[in-house]
Design goal:
The chain is mainly β. The protein contains one helix and 25 strands. Helices cover 5% and strands 44% of the residues. The strands form six sheets. Strands 2, 3, 4, 5 and 6 form a five-stranded antiparallel sheet that branches. Strands 1-25-24-23 form a four-stranded antiparallel sheet, with no helix packed on it. A hairpin with a 3-residue loop joins β16 and β17. The termini are far apart.
Length: 351
C-alpha cells in the first residue's frame, strides 16, 4: 500500500512538473474564444483599451479565402476573455459576399478604438476598411472604405509619432513588382492619408511585406519585415517615417511567415517570430515553428530568449501580435494550428 501511495505521489509530481511553464517569464497562456463556431481562424491582433482591459480580433470562417470568413472580436475584462462576436464581414451591397482579412486594432491616445481590416477575393485585390468603437469594443460604427490607394495597416499595429501622426506599416502583394513595402501616415485620425513608398528592394531584391515599427532613443525608427527570401528584412527612418532606407537583410531567419515587434518601456526591442528557414527545395514555404521571442538593444544583434512553441504541428504557430500594457507586462497572441488564437502573458523583466 505504501509503495502504491509513493508511486501515485511520484506521478502527480511528474504531471505538475510537465504542466509548469517552460520559462518563469511566462505568467499565463490560454486560448481565446475556445469552442468557436468556425473551423479555422487566423491573423490575430490585440490592444489595451484601459488598464486591465484588452480587446483582441482575428478572422474566422470555413477556411482562409472562403466568403464566410468574418472579423471576430473578444474583450478581456476581469482577467477573462468573453465569447467572440463577429463584427464585420464581406457582404456587398451588390455582388457576391467576399472574404475578410487581417484585422488590426489600434487605440490612439485620444479618440475611439479603431479596427482596420481588408475585404476582397485575395491579398492582391483586397481593399482597406475602417470602423471605430467608442465603448472599448462593445459596439461599432458602420464600416467605411479607406481611400483608393490606401490599405491601412496591413497586419501589424500602427504607431503614434511625437507630433501625433499615426504611422501605419503597409504593403502590397500583387502587380508586376510583386511584394512591396510602403507606409501610410494620417494626421487627422484617418480622414486623409499620405502614402510613403514603395521602398527600394535593394541589391538582394527582397520581396517584403507586413512591417512592424520600432523606436530608438536617438529618434530613429526601424521596421522589420516578413520576406519570401528566407530572412527578415529591415529598413530605417531618421525623419519620422517620411523617408526610409533601402531594404536590407537581417541575420534572422524567416520561413515566409508574419512577425510582430514592440519597443519596450526599458528601451529594448522585442520580436516575436518563427526562427526557422525555408528548405532550399521550397524556398517560399517554410515551417511555421518554432515560435520564438528575440530581444535586441540596437535592432541589429538579436538574442533568442524564449521559445513559445516548439512541437511540430500541422499548420504551425503563426502571425503573432505583441503589445506592452500599462502595467509593464507583454501580451502576445498568435494562430495555433489555424484552430485557435492563443494568448500568452510575459514578464519582460525575466527575459
Amino acid at each position: 500500500m505504501r509503495s502504491l501511495l509513493l508511486l501515485a505521489l511520484f506521478l502527480l509530481a511528474a504531471e505538475v512538473r510537465a504542466a509548469a511553464p517552460v520559462s518563469p517569464a511566462i505568467l499565463s497562456s490560454c486560448f481565446i474564444n475556445d469552442g468557436a463556431p468556425y473551423p479555422e481562424c487566423h491573423a490575430s491582433t490585440i490592444v489595451e483599451v484601459a488598464p486591465g482591459r484588452l480587446v483582441a480580433a482575428w478572422f474566422g470562417g470555413t477556411k482562409e479565402r472562403d466568403p464566410d470568413v468574418g472579423i471576430w472580436v473578444s474583450r478581456r475584462e476581469g482577467g477573462k476573455w468573453l465569447p467572440g462576436v463577429e463584427v464585420a464581414n464581406g457582404i456587398q451591397a451588390e455582388g457576391p459576399r467576399l472574404p475578410t482579412w487581417n484585422p488590426v486594432l489600434f487605440q490612439p491616445p485620444q479618440g475611439p478604438l479603431v479596427l482596420f481590416y481588408k475585404v476582397g477575393p485575395s491579398p492582391s485585390t483586397w481593399w482597406g476598411m475602417m470602423m471605430t468603437s467608442a465603448d472599448g469594443g462593445k459596439t461599432w460604427t458602420k464600416p467605411q472604405k479607406l481611400p483608393d490607394g490606401v490599405l491601412g495597416p496591413i497586419k501589424n499595429k500602427p504607431v503614434v509619432l511625437k507630433d501625433g501622426t499615426w504611422l501605419a506599416s503597409s504593403s502590397t502583394e500583387g502587380g508586376p513588382n510583386g511584394w512591396q513595402v510602403h507606409f501610410e501616415l494620417t494626421r487627422d485620425a484617418g480622414k486623409t492619408w499620405q502614402v510613403v513608398g514603395p521602398l527600394d528592394k535593394g541589391a538582394d531584391k527582397l520581396s517584403a511585406i507586413q512591417p512592424s515599427v520600432l523606436f530608438y532613443a536617438d529618434g530613429r525608427l526601424q521596421a522589420l519585415c516578413r520576406t519570401s527570401n528566407g530572412v527578415l528584412a529591415t529598413t530605417w527612418s531618421s525623419d519620422n517615417g517620411r523617408t526610409w532606407s533601402t531594404l536590407a537583410k537581417t541575420t534572422l531567419p524567416n520561413p515566409n511567415s508574419g512577425t510582430d515587434a514592440v519597443t519596450l518601456k526599458d528601451g529594448r526591442q522585442l520580436l516575436v517570430y518563427n526562427h526557422s528557414s525555408p528548405p532550399p527545395e521550397t524556398p517560399t514555404k517554410g515551417l511555421r515553428y518554432p515560435l520564438d521571442i528575440g530581444i535586441s538593444t540596437d535592432g541589429v544583434t538579436w538574442k533568442r530568449v524564449l521559445t513559445l512553441e516548439s512541437e511540430p504541428i500541422g499548420n504551425g504557430y503563426a502571425y503573432p501580435a505583441v503589445i506592452q500594457t500599462s502595467d509593464g507586462l507583454v501580451h502576445v497572441t498568435y494562430t495555433w494550428n489555424r484552430q485557435h488564437i492563443k494568448h500568452v502573458v510575459l514578464d519582460p523583466k525575466k527575459l
